[in-house]
Amino acid sequence: MTDKLLRVEELYTRFDTDRGTVHAVDGASFTVDRGEIVGVLGESGSGKSVTARSICRLEEPGKIGNGTIMFDGTDLTTASKSTLRQIRGNEISMVFQDPTETLNPVFPVGEQIAEAVRIHEANSRQRLLDFLGVPLFRDQSAWADARDRAVELMDQMDIPNPESRLSAFPHEFSGGLRQRAVLAIALASDPKLLIADEPTTALDTTTQADILQRLRSLRDERDVGILLISHDLGVVAQTCDRVVVLYGGQVMEAGPVNEVLTAPEHPYTRMLLECSVRNSTPGERVQSVSGTPSDPIGSYEACPFADRCRHATTACRERYIPTTELDSEHRLACLEAPLPADDASAHRQDALTPDGGKQDDST
Amino acid sequence: MNNQYLLKRLVTMGIVLFGVSLLTYVMIFVTPGDPARTILTQQMGGQTPSQEAVEQFRVSEGLDDPFTVQYVRWMSDVLQGDLGYSYYSDQPVTDAIAQRLPNTITLAVASGIVAIAISVPAGIASAVNPGSRIDYTAQFGALVGVSMPNFWLGYLLIIVCSLWLDVFPVAGVGGLEHLVLPAVTLGSGMAAIISRLVRTAMLDVLDAAYIRTARSKGLREQIVIYKHALQNALVPVVTIIGLQLSYVLNGAVVVEVVFQRPGLGTLLVDAIFARDYPIVQGVTLLIGVIFVLTNFAVDLTYNQLDPRIDLGGELM
Amino acid sequence: MIHQLEAPSLVHPLGTDQLGRDVLTRLLHGSRLSLGIAVIVTTVRLVIGTAVGLVAGYAGGWIDEALMRLVDTLLAFPGIVLALVIAGILGPSLVNVMLALAVVGWASYARLVRSSVLSLREREFVTAARLLGRSRTHVTVRHLIPNIAAPVVVLATLDIGGVILGISGLSFLGLGAQPPTPEWGTMLASGRTYIRQAWWLVNAPGVCIMITVLGFNILGDCLRDRLSPAQSNQIEKL
């Protein structure tokens, strides 16, 4: 199994704050292979974005405490800054949530794409004055080539009139166009791995579908491995091949999407599914997850979900939860598994009674 | 650029300029003492003029007219570039100002260069390593800088650099060596204010998502800071640098006195003690107008630096 | 005369001046004067500025417009230059310098208070009080003033340092306190004649001014950090 593109093992990322150490990622392990889309699913605060950033070592001001991140034979946790930079420029690209914020407002979109192209191609040394565009120091022909390539990339991303949009500023783009521009930047380096952190959350439904379609064709046509971070079950279900369910910085359940999302074994995954509108029958009230994610301060010596779990026993709160493998692909961290098959509906019944937890009609 | 906004801004500026001229004129108008007598005494070489001569002079010069008439007359003169004559030397005020202005501009520009050269690197170094020893040193330095009276800093530099080390001349104008100490005196105080602002602005910007994008592209940290972060941080910084003109003009008065440089500041101070009101009036008006125009220019520069601002005043 | 221009020693820790007076004693004596004046000037600025800001923000319309243009005009002059001219016209004296500094300095308070009032006016507790039929005075005293007090006090603390620099600066130029008043700026000005023989005469009052201003600035920074970031931004911009 050493041939996986990305193998994250026992990753710990912590933030030292005034109120104590926050363990945002708490021993997560998962893999991403070439030509597959792996979803990381979790509520806000579950540590999924920090996981994404930690892989590229953009976790500042957090610190990676332990674990290994093997990418294509390189351990990123111990790699030097220049190695990291080269990997970021050439092999791993990232797409972030809000395209309004991820493009630099003071530079034209074309310049930002061309920059990514140049970083990839001029691999030797990035000269400050060249990148600043100081006339005598700028390598005009290289930038002209990079801009041609940028037009090509924009065209591939179906940005209309790429030549004329080269000099447009991000604020002159619509949300969907911006995210396509961000994708163009990410693809400029022809990456092996694309990490997409909630790439569609800020977009409307049609644009969302378009971007997800692009991700799928990247997987199929370019054999890119994609790590898709999302809180949206629907997005994960229709896009991913495998899914990792994260809670409190720990992996609750992981496996092929069609297994995990159709026959979830972990109480948390079940709970998420029950809350999804897609799963409720018409006329039925949409469920909300009872309680809120626990404040992830302090490393867990127990199941992080225990306080919200209706199956929790004292054992769940007292000791480290080992990961059990249901089969070679599907694994989960729960002492009570396997749960009774009819649990899902039982839980739903339970939630409808007054004691079953808070209900929120608006969700 | 939004024409309507520009128009609105121009109208407001016009009102403020009118206020500036009115304030300048009123201040001198209500001054105790009889300008007719002062001027005649001067013209007659120090002899006390007769009462009739004073009366006659008043009528001929329109000094008995109502305030509004006199103000309008003064304003129309000013608009034609006539600021009157010095009470004591018969020199046109515009000439006196023109003689001194270059020295003050030189000082302002030199101290601006000193200030930027110190503050921008210091602010960036602070922001890039927040909480580090560099950061604390820079921040404390800035605090000392704003707390230091520049007239004292001037003498301190004279004592150390001129009297003890004998590197720079004590005072006066001349070559570059005369400019160094005044520029450092004036520039360091400004640097203190600007570096705090650069730090805040850079800290804000370095947190932004587009900086993460820039890093995730694999850009060198240096380029991330100097290209992607600095250009965004410059927007508020340029505003403050523009507004530092107030500090420069305030400081120039004192620094010019300390280093005995003939400039607008010394001209103003000398005129105040000599009660040479046309000069006082002219210099005050000029300083007010320069200041208002600078603020306006700073507003326009905004647009150049941040394409999101279309001068509708709103960020999208 | 004896003990003229003596270098710092155990008897005279900061030396003596041209008249043989102990510099440390004069500085300590002068501190009462400088601090007292600075507090008075700042208080006057605060009171005028707050009053104008309240009226402008609350009255709105042409009153607001006129007051704000006056504020703009005052802010269109570098403070010290304007104070210098006003004090110069009134004639050199400490009282005139205080007057001049008070007159030119209230505008930034007015601006801060007005913008606070404008944002508070839309807040629910103010609307509620007005719907209850409370008078303007009642709303102002009970609801507005307590809410603008914190930022105004912070601004005042940061301003005191500037006022001290202003007073000593104008005194240095010869417009404020006249010798033999032991005002720090005046002392520094009289010391410059002896700069070659007695370096301490210029530096002792200089250090004194700096440490005092530094103290107020640190205090002001601390107070500002205790406030919400939104308010601290507002003050930073002034």
Description:
Chain A: It comes from Natronococcus jeotgali DSM 18795. Chain A: It holds the Pfam family oligo_HPY. Chain A: It catalyses: Ni(2+)(out) + ATP + H2O = Ni(2+)(in) + ADP + phosphate + H(+). The complex is a heterotrimer of chains A (363), B (316) and C (238). By secondary structure, chain A is an alpha/beta fold. Helix content of chain A is 35%, strand content 20%. Chain A has 14 helices and twelve strands. In chain A, the strands form two sheets. An eight-stranded mixed β-sheet of chain A has the order 6-7-8-3-9-10-12-11, sandwiched between helices. In chain A, a hairpin with a 2-residue loop joins strand 1 and strand 2. Chain B contains 13 helices and no strands. In chain B, helix 5 packs antiparallel against helix 6. Chain B is flat, with a radius of gyration of 24 Å. The relative contact order of chain B is 0.13. The C terminus of chain B is likely disordered. Chain C has ten helices and no strands. Chain C has one domain: MetI-like fold (Orthogonal Bundle), CATH 1.10.3720. The mean pLDDT of chain C is 83. By secondary structure, chain C is mainly alpha-helical. In chain C, helix 1 runs parallel beside helix 4. The interface between B and C is large, with 44 and 45 residues.
Q: What's the story with the biggest beta sheet of chain A? A: 8 strands, mixed
Largest sheet, strands/sense/barrel of chain C: none
**Secondary-structure class of chain A:** alpha/beta
Overall shape of chain C: it is elongated
**N-end to C-end Cα span of chain C:** 51 Å
The level-1 CATH class of chain C: Mainly Alpha
